[in-house]
């Protein structure tokens, strides 16, 4: 707390109180003889910027690897899968519904995939950006490099594990679903038109299969997430039916890619609702 003297008449002190927000108690009981008034000026203070996350968790998803997750103070959600050869980070802004996926590796330019929001669907790397799915050949040209290949290989192994037979369901399956679909989407952009469909089949098979062994406090969150997936799966089927009705083979492929991108954006938005419900409490129950 500091004091500042101003040479002013006593009536002006009252004005100074109003301007500086001083309390009357800080003034002398009687006006000083030198007509000076002492006004308390509160020091200006600003709290530290909140750069640290509001919530942060880390752990492992069996078959995928080490995952870290955080929610920032502006409610932005981020999950990152880290391995020796690659790092895949996905973030969701709940207010806009925009999802950004970044695949990076040492010594390589990162690939950025944006879904939802204003662009709806865009892919960028090394200064080149494709908005929409109308140029699948141009998009495919961005998918080279060790990091993307290593990520696709990891997700391929995980997909085969899921295909091998029934497994114990987990409360963190919604987070695994997100990475599974990202890997499938990258494969779809690379030319594998059935990749997202296979991932979708595995997810729906789990949902319609054995009862989930979720923690009691997370069951409502899991149930809401799974009901949401069943709803948007119907929308995906309708979108693909319309795409398959196109006369041009090239247009059909582009429209199907757009349908899969929209489906993935909706799934990740559903995961965002799951995160808001659990605050990452499902990592890694």
Overview of the structural elements:
This protein has 285 residues and is of the alpha+beta class. The chain has two domains: 2-41, no CATH class; 55-278, no CATH class. Helix content is 42%, strand content 22%. The chain contains seven helices and ten strands. The chain has helices at 10-20, 136-140, 146-163, 173-189, 195-207, 219-244, 249-278; strands at 2-7, 36-41, 55-61, 65-71, 77-82, 87-93, 98-104, 111-116, 120-125, 128-131. Strands 3-4-5-6-7-8-9-10 form an eight-stranded antiparallel beta sheet. A hairpin with a 4-residue loop joins strand 5 and strand 6. Helix 3 (146-163) crosses helix 4, helix 4 (173-189) runs antiparallel to helix 5 and helix 4 runs antiparallel to helix 7 (249-278). It is globular, with a radius of gyration of 28 Å. 30% of the residues are buried. Residues 1-48 have low confidence and may be disordered.
Quick synopsis:
By secondary structure, the chain is an alpha+beta fold.
The rough form would be described as globular
**Number of discrete domains:** 2
Radius of gyration: 28 Å
Helix percentage range? 40-55%
Which stretches are low in confidence, meaning pLDDT under 50 for 5 or more residues running? 1-48
Spatial strand arrangement across the major sheet: 3-4-5-6-7-8-9-10
Instruction: Report the average pLDDT across residues.
Output: 78
Q: Find the structural class using helix and strand composition.
A: alpha+beta
Task: Tell me how many strands there are.
Answer: 10
């Amino acid at each position: 707390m500091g004091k500042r003297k101003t040479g002013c008449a006593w009536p002006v002190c009252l004005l100074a109180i109003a301007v500086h927000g001083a309390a009357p108690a800080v003034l002398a009981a009687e006006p000083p003889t030198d007509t000076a008034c002492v006004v308390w000026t509160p020091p200006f203070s600003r709290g530290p910027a909140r750069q640290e996350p509001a919530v942060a968790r880390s752990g492992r998803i069996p078959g995928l690897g080490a995952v870290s997750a955080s929610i920032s103070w502006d409610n932005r959600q981020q999950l990152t899968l880290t391995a020796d050869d690659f790092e895949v980070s996905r973030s969701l802004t709940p207010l806009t519904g925009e999802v950004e996926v970044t695949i990076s590796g040492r010594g390589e330019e990162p690939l950025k995939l944006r879904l939802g929001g204003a662009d709806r669907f865009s892919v960028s790397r090394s200064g080149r950006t494709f908005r929409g799915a109308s140029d699948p050949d141009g998009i495919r040209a961005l998918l080279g490099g060790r990091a993307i290949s290593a990520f696709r290989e990891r997700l391929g192994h995980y997909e085969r594990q899921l295909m091998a037979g029934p497994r114990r369901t987990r409360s963190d399956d919604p987070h695994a679903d997100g990475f599974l679909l990202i890997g499938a989407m990258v494969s779809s952009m690379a030319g594998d038109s059935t990749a997202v469909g296979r991932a979708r089949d595995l997810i729906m098979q789990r949902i319609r299969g054995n009862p989930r062994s979720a923690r009691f406090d997370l069951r409502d969150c899991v149930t809401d997430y799974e009901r949401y997936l069943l709803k948007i799966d119907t929308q995906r089927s309708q979108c693909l039916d319309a795409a398959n009705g196109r006369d041009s083979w090239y247009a059909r492929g582009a429209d199907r890619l757009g349908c899969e991108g929209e489906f993935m954006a909706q799934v990740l938005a559903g995961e965002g609702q799951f995160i808001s419900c659990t605050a990452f409490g499902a990592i890694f129950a």
